[in-house]
Amino acid sequence: MLSNKAVVKISKAVITAAGPGQEQLPLQTLMNRKGVPCSTLSVQLAELADSGIKEVAVVIDDPERESLLRHAAGASELSIIFVKQPPEAKGFGHAILSATDFTANQPFLLMVGDHIYVTDDSERTCASQLIEVAHREQCLVSAVQSTHESQLRQFGTIGGALVSGQTRLYDVNQVEEKPTPTYAEQHLLVPGQRLAHYLCFFGMHVITPEVMELLRREAEQFGPQKSLGLSPALNHSAGQGKYLAAQLQGRRFDLEQPYGLLKAQIAIGLQGTDRERLLTEILELFAPVRADA
To answer: Is 289 inside a domain boundary?
Structure first.
C-alpha cells in the first residue's frame, strides 16, 4: 500500500537513461503535436508536467552527458536533477536504486528513457492515467499493453485476472521478464486477451517504497556485479500485497526497436495540428503520382 494513514500524491518521477546503447535516445529529434522540433527527452518531460509531476530525476551513466541532456530538456517547468548510476552497478534495478535519495521513501512514477508514449485519451496523458489509478487504489501499479507473443522477448509480462467490475484493471499474480511464448501460454494467460496476446509492461510504473526496499536487499545480497532487474522485485510484490496492472488508453513506442522513432513520430503527428498534411503525404508515399500521368 502507498499509505495507511493518508492519500499520498505522486509528485516525483524517475527517468532511467543509463542503459547500454541509450546514450543518444534522449537527444533524438522529432516533431511534437504542434509541429515544433524537439528532443525525445523534452517530449517525455512534457508528458510528466502535464500529469502533475513537479520533480524529475534522470538517471545517467556518465556525468559528462549532463550538459547535453540539460540542453535537450529545454525550458521545462519541472525541477530536474541528474543522478549518476555507479559504474560498477549493473541492470535496471541498480539504475532505479541510484535515485533512492531523490525518491526519499515516497512512491514515484518510473518511466523508462527509451520509450515514447502516445495517449488515445484527449483529456489525459498516459502518465496521468496511471497516476490516477495509483491515487485511487493506493498501491503498486504497472502500466501494461496487449502485446503479440512474437514480441515477448522484449518485455516483462504479467499474469493475473481482471479486477471485478473493471474493464482494464488487473490483479497481478505473477511477473516474468521476457518469457518464451511457451512459458507465457502455460503461466501468463490473462482472460479477455486476444489469441497469442499477453499483457506486457508499458514502460511506466508507480513504484512504492516496499519495492525499493526489495531492490536494496537484493543489491546488498548479491553485490553490484550482479545485474539487478526490476521484474523479480515486482514478482515478489505480487505475492505480498495489492499489486495492480492498468491497461491504459494509449500506446508505447520502444525507440530501440527498428523504426521505433519513426512509428512514434507518425503516431504523434496524426494527433497533431498537421494531421491532414501528414496523412496526405503518407498516402503519396504509398501511391506516388506518376510523372507521365
So the answer is: no
Q: What is the dihedral of CA 260, 263, 269, 275, to 10 degrees?
A: 170
Q: Please tell me the total number of residues recorded for the chain in this structure.
A: 293
In the chain, the number of structural domains is: 1
Mean pLDDT, residues 266-281 taken together: 91
Over 70: is that where the pLDDT of 290 sits?
A: no
**75, 96, 241 from 269: Cα distances, Å:** 22, 32, 41
- CA distance linking residue 100 with residue 204, whole number of Å: 18
Note whether residue 7 is domain-resident.
no
Nearest residue to 90 via CA among 231, 225, 213: 225
Q: 150 lies in a domain?
A: yes
Q: Is residue 228 part of a domain?
A: yes
Q: Is the pLDDT of residue 5 over 50?
A: no
Range of the domain at 137: 12-280
Record the cell numbers describing residue 89, joined without a space. Answer: 552497478
73-80 long-range contacts, CB within 8 A, separation 24+: 73/39, 73/41, 73/42, 73/45, 74/38, 74/39, 74/42, 74/45, 76/42, 76/45, 76/46, 76/49, 77/49, 78/45, 78/48, 78/49, 78/53, 78/54, 79/54, 79/55, 80/45, 80/55, 80/56
CA distances from 54 to 78, 85, 123, 266, 277 (A): 5, 22, 19, 29, 35
pLDDT in tens, 116-165: 999 999 899 999 999 999 999 999 999 999 999 999 999 999 999 999 99
Three-state SS for 228-279 is: CCCHHHHHHHHCCCCEEEEECCEEEEECCCCCHHHHHHHHHHCCCCCHHHHH
Question: What is the pLDDT at residue 73?
Answer: 93
Summarize pLDDT for 174-209 with one digit per residue, the tens: 999 999 999 999 999 999 999 999 999 999 999 999
CATH number at residue 169: 3.90.550.10
